[in-house]
Amino acid sequence: xxxxxxxxxxxxxxxxxxxxxxxxxxxxxxxxxxxxxxxxxxxxxxxxxxxxxxxxxxxxxxxxxxxxxxxxxxxxxxxxxxxxxxxxxxxxxxxxxxxxxxxxxxxxxxxxxxxxxxxxxxxxxxxxxxxxxxxxxxxxxxxxxxxxxxxxxxxxxxxxxxxxxxxxxxxxxx
Length: 174
Fold this sequence. Notes:
By secondary structure, this protein is an alpha+beta fold.
């Protein structure tokens, strides 16, 4: 990828808690994610505990996005429905790395993990209708707009329209 940083995903662990705590206070992350606002005390630790539990049951997964080896955000599968072959994905990048291809590379890695490594059939994104940057990332990663979901409760006290984007597994019929 051009002149941008080398991007990879690592299973989210305790070593990433400081980065998550800082990311979770970013105004755009608070606006466009399901992170509670205001953040409760100990949010990062409880977030990790929830994803650790989901990892054990196979119902969710969390990764740290690394850019040149440093924490750059999160890439998540907050809902994995193996019986239907469907996964919801999400991502958030630190402010200083936005616009440098990090989100696109991270979503490509996350999508590959979901569709190829986990052998799920469809990856879905639920993107706030006003989140133009995230919609651009989805398009660059081969997702297509499916429909608008009106009046989504993003978090308590925040209701807005969201867009449903999908990317399906390409199955060779040879």
